[in-house]
Design a protein that fits this description.
The complex is a heterohexamer, with 3 copies of chain A (about 425 residues) and 3 copies of chain D (about 160 residues). Chain A is an alpha+beta fold and about 425 residues long. Chain A has helices spanning about 1-5, 35-50, 175-190, 210-220, 220-225, 230-235, 265-275, 345-355, 370-380, 410-420; strands at about 55-60, 65-75, 75-80, 90, 105-110, 115, 120, 130, 160, 165-170, 195-205, 240-245, 255-260, 300-305, 310-315, 320-325, 335-340. Classes of the chains: A alpha+beta (about 425), D alpha+beta (about 160). Bound molecules: FE2/S2 (inorganic) cluster (FES) (3 copies) and fe (iii) ion (FE) (3 copies).
Amino acid sequence: MPDLIETAPHIAGAAPDAVFFPRSDGSRVPYAVFSSQEIYDLEQERIFRGPTWSFLGLEAEIPEPGDFKSTYIGDTPVVMTRAADGELAAWVNRCAHRGAVVCRRKYGNATAHTCVYHQWAYDPKGNLTSVPFRRGQKDKPGMPPDFDLASNGLRQLRVESYRGLVFATFSDSVGPVAEYLGAEMGPYVDRIFHKPVVYLGCTRQFAKSNWKLYFENVKDPYHASLLHLFHTTFNIFRAGMEANVIPDATHGLHSIILAAKNNEQTSDAYKEQKIRSFDENFSLKDPSILEIRQEYAELTTNHIQSIFPQLVIQQIHNTLVARQVLPKGPDSFELVFHFFGYADDDEEMRAMRIKQANLVGPAGYISMEDTEATELVQRGTIRDAALSSVIDMGLSAADRRDTLITETLIRKFWIGYQTLMRL
Amino acid sequence: MPDLIETAPHIAGAAPDAVFFPRSDGSRVPYAVFSSQEIYDLEQERIFRGPTWSFLGLEAEIPEPGDFKSTYIGDTPVVMTRAADGELAAWVNRCAHRGAVVCRRKYGNATAHTCVYHQWAYDPKGNLTSVPFRRGQKDKPGMPPDFDLASNGLRQLRVESYRGLVFATFSDSVGPVAEYLGAEMGPYVDRIFHKPVVYLGCTRQFAKSNWKLYFENVKDPYHASLLHLFHTTFNIFRAGMEANVIPDATHGLHSIILAAKNNEQTSDAYKEQKIRSFDENFSLKDPSILEIRQEYAELTTNHIQSIFPQLVIQQIHNTLVARQVLPKGPDSFELVFHFFGYADDDEEMRAMRIKQANLVGPAGYISMEDTEATELVQRGTIRDAALSSVIDMGLSAADRRDTLITETLIRKFWIGYQTLMRL
Amino acid sequence: MPDLIETAPHIAGAAPDAVFFPRSDGSRVPYAVFSSQEIYDLEQERIFRGPTWSFLGLEAEIPEPGDFKSTYIGDTPVVMTRAADGELAAWVNRCAHRGAVVCRRKYGNATAHTCVYHQWAYDPKGNLTSVPFRRGQKDKPGMPPDFDLASNGLRQLRVESYRGLVFATFSDSVGPVAEYLGAEMGPYVDRIFHKPVVYLGCTRQFAKSNWKLYFENVKDPYHASLLHLFHTTFNIFRAGMEANVIPDATHGLHSIILAAKNNEQTSDAYKEQKIRSFDENFSLKDPSILEIRQEYAELTTNHIQSIFPQLVIQQIHNTLVARQVLPKGPDSFELVFHFFGYADDDEEMRAMRIKQANLVGPAGYISMEDTEATELVQRGTIRDAALSSVIDMGLSAADRRDTLITETLIRKFWIGYQTLMRL
Amino acid sequence: MDKLLMLRLELAALQDRYISVLDNDRLEEWPTLFVEDCLYEIIPKENYDRGLPAPVIHCDNRRMMEDRVLSLRNANIFAEHTYRHMVSGLELLDVTDGAAGMTSNYLVISTNNEGTSTIYQAGRYIDRVVLTPDGWRYKSKRVVYDTLRVATLLATPI
Amino acid sequence: MDKLLMLRLELAALQDRYISVLDNDRLEEWPTLFVEDCLYEIIPKENYDRGLPAPVIHCDNRRMMEDRVLSLRNANIFAEHTYRHMVSGLELLDVTDGAAGMTSNYLVISTNNEGTSTIYQAGRYIDRVVLTPDGWRYKSKRVVYDTLRVATLLATPI
Amino acid sequence: MDKLLMLRLELAALQDRYISVLDNDRLEEWPTLFVEDCLYEIIPKENYDRGLPAPVIHCDNRRMMEDRVLSLRNANIFAEHTYRHMVSGLELLDVTDGAAGMTSNYLVISTNNEGTSTIYQAGRYIDRVVLTPDGWRYKSKRVVYDTLRVATLLATPI
Ligand code: FES
Ligand code: FES
Ligand code: FES
Ligand SMILES: [Fe+3]
Ligand SMILES: [Fe+3]
Ligand SMILES: [Fe+3]
């Protein structure tokens, strides 16, 4: 089984004793999972090289034959390519000869990928096509006679595109992406990717916190109106909005949060809570940033959908983003915002998507606080690996899907995580 | 017992085998104690969360109700506050909900401390006072009915002020501060803190060496005239001064070094030693920096008193400092110089204290070398964890208190350290 | 045995289980050896403090009595000196008192080395000559009566100069340098060091990769014309050159690669290989950089000789360098290029050596790619400690010495490495 | 004397004032260095080089800049920090009466409230300036940053 | 032509010379850039902002600066290092005949004798200069540093 | 007005253009800032201070500089990166008609293609410039770097 072959022995099977979940309902998470190197290494094996599909990028990033993009699955360097026949492929970016990174550029177009060290050359699908002096030179020998190009290619991965989203896996056993997404998530992915998209570029954030804290964050509607004060300061969003909060039924690792406008009474609701964030005095000099043009059946202002372990699909007003989450050690991760629009956008709509980019990303009016929050948790918990968080909001009605005041998705996430990690 | 609850399991009880003290008299210290991560983690548990009192700051830093200051005990973030009722309090800076750092500022005044993530609010004593949407919203549930604010506060610590010095501890068992200081140290603390002080600000040094090397340094009168050449170059201080070198009798972890002027013969003493540092040619163009105005019964030029594990009280000429020692990993620590004066200082005296600040701190004429020295030891010993230092000066008359040419305080320190660490 | 005494117990004997060599012929190397901290620590003990001679520098760097230079054996700070009597000496740069680095300068001249902390003074051979207040002061005691200067010196190392190359070792058992070099290597060292040299200065590269990847690199003639495209782009060097590729017969850890000009047919040879690097269009506007003045019996353009574990002797055209390889952790090393010439160089020859310095070093036309390549391997292999490289080139005629298209020296290296490391 | 050199000096003074305003907590003054109808954009070099539009901040008029300041002062949550900008390598690109294009390098060092300073961002300013009754003002300022990985978040403008 | 621009140029030259003196081992020249009755102070931003006086270095006349140089050359022990100052963002604050106030950003990169360069300190100069027969000299220079955690120690002035 | 100040301004413009050429991928323009018979050298401070000649790059005429550009563009292999130079502390050393010596500090921040920026090199330029029909050009430029440990390799000139 490739998964095992690819795994470092000092990791395999090592179930860190540092980690104990005091409850089975996902409501108590030992802080060790956010800082332990052993846990992190185990995640690389059991999650990122396990029975999951990792998001690599958009097909729209590599439209032409030969196009490629360098990225990661977990922290393993991986390249996604479009072969001459138009097929998608992905392989581990490590030369079969002596292990050098083969593809040294972030993106580009190439009919062959040649390792600079000794120029072993691979095709876009990762097959080894030539080895300099393989047959030696004149009477001088080259590679052994039995050396077989076919069995010395790059480590090739299973790849699938789901409506233009490119996923790859190390696993031979996991089912197709549609099945992996499951019955609850599929329709919402389809909602956003119902027609061809164009890639508008990406922005990156590097957060000094564990990658799972970001998954907690995007599964946490409770924080939205409390941490992101832009909402309330400028009257954009309310906890009282019509909500739809849906976990994945298979393993609970995916989820979606939908919110639709509905302003009645909510400022009173806030006043009751005496919440600091409430303020009626401010207004924007240029409110155009908050306009919304209806593009879908329901007029949702927010669609936040996490597809474990590397993807978050987002629609906020008219800005569309596929967020990729890349772990970089127990205490940091990179977040890549892939902005896109639809191929048939008119100029005005395209301009609107760019303008609304101000709402999200590293300087996003309603997103910049998220990495700040995950870092606060990292710093607050690092010395206390044995203590646990308290994740009880909405616990008594765990199955209600019509409220944003809940941590139910986070609890489901941790239950799924324990299963996958065998903790 | 809170101490244990607060401790990560992979640390608890783990007595690193890397460390062996070849002698029982504290004169041979294995270099492993300066670089081992295991030892460091164990120190956090057995020393900083053990039966000790850690110095947090001066009451004068937080005079008003609501005033607070963020600091550390060991490497655990802790906040010290003055509550509405004027009482002092301290708590671990980690939200009871999902672990975020609650107080994000270094100092300020606040009637409530609200975590930014979900706005759980705490009072200055660390009690949880409100949880947004605790009772849900309309028919939608919030926290479980049995959720109890009182049992979800911040981790509160025992706090005591001793004459304006604020100490805190994780321990339930350690006695009051006066008892912890002990009969030898108390009078010398009283000497400096015999009347109200005012806070003059702080300066910070970050040293790339183990925190205990700094404790060795402040317990080492032997180095004073040999490392700090300013003394001798400009004729300020002599090893031949009248000295008072006193260890704490309870566990040997505290100590004081007092020096009083007395110039006879000492330059001859130096010439005998052929010590590089001796030089009669230099003189200061502005010697005002070295004036001294008598403020205490004895005219001491130096009062260096270490109160384990986080405090060094210093009087040098007329400059007064409470130094806080904060470990930041096995190989680094932060040193915070809290400058202060007396409330009744006249202008001239205040100006003198500021001018004499040139003597100490990161650029101090007679202190800048200390962190340089501790870093030289760190670099010199890192690869040789199993080797030991040779701490024999004055060994044959370990109880003499009238000489600066001794390492007796260091030996006592290591004996106390072994006991506390159970090594 | 000093070697053992100098070794940290948590390392001694620990044979990391992370490492398994699937074949005995050195053709499969587990990537763990490039990233494991345990392996790295073990190397410090078994290689750098084991039965090997480490290159410290050139005698020409310290021509006068009292001259010294600070350097390393592995990552242990070591100082090489020339004593008053003209003899060479070397000692570990760690004070016998409390472990401070004694010598704080990179090079200089000193009749005594005095530790700044308490001014213990050592002579250039590392003997302790004085301890301030050793006999105390007046009636006050100093060091114990039985304190013996002779037994408290710095850790002194065996030192030998071989034709101006200074080597040192922690080992009492390893034979003299001439024996260590062995019958195959000696003559080639003699070739370069057949007359007095002068030191022309050094340049340094810091590479984020394991030090052994650099040894693979200098034992790898296969990469020369494939990675370093300057050769082929400007028609300087060809894989078809007359080659001499010789491993050390004792343990296989040393080696030499010699190449001599010979242009026939080789461009055709390249065309056959369809090698990207071949190009006939470019020519230098100032080809003087590629002139060569014959200085030795054979007109070799390249002499690359690795003397394990810290030296690579290089002659490329008329530029002469002793490269020192200094490990700085599992994932980085420093490479120091010691440039030299001969004492009897005429002005023109000296100018030529300086001009040809453009060929090597951090910006060397035909060397800058080497550290790039080793870093690509480090990044490509870090997550896959259990996988192995494929080192098969020329395997079927492992003993041929007349071809550059071979990895035989690398295989020999790994066999020797396993023996020395007991893996 | 050389008019270009004088212009250079005037525009260097504008750049210096620009960074001084940002580094010394005078955010409200920041939009006043632009004309009303302006462009202020922060965009990663990887997008700029590929002709892709996705920005980090994109203001197509001065009011949007004022809104940004309002939000930073009253709504957004971020860690206390201090910027120090360095600018160098000023080149005038095209000069006409009362208008000019210029480019320069910048470096932003950020210090957190623990007192640790790090490289926050390096990049390039691509500016158009116009002469107004109040002196030179930015018509457009494109901030093209090399440091693609934004550390934690970007609050204070560059 | 614009007198202010010329003054700017002269003071920029003073700042440049100031850092060149410190970075190229001409410490003895450092006090000569001040008038006899001067103030030179290095103070952390956290104290400066709170109005607290505790400094790292505080010289209230030029002789104290000369003493500092004497001590660095002959008494104090510190690791060999090389500074490189960068200054930018010069703003003139108030200008009268023969006197001016100004502020600017600075960055100090320090390189140890292993050859590793790190950010040593970032901060702000707040200066008063006066015109003397020898040209512009510092009447006061307050060095307000952001990098509160001083790495190891501070020997060479900023 | 002060001719020295004007000269300073002209030479600052030359330095600014020099780094802009290197930082914005206009390598081919780099040799054109030198006269044909010139010296360009990059040398570590440890060698410079000891009077040892070993360089990292040593070009004793402009053609060698053109060869370096040709090789970087067509032969050498190195990771994609972006430099940002900062120069500061310009001092004129000796000025004659049509020629001058000067020194200044430089800092090079390098960003890799992951988007991480690091201090690549700090050091000092020691230049001789001459006035040519095309304006000021370098007769010699010695780059004396403090950062003795060159990170990985040095491809793009400093
Ligand atoms: S490592 Fe890739 S070709 Fe040799
Ligand atoms: S983490 Fe503090 S309120 Fe949620
Ligand atoms: S440590 Fe060297 S003399 Fe004390
Ligand atoms: Fe959020
Ligand atoms: Fe001291
Ligand atoms: Fe090579």
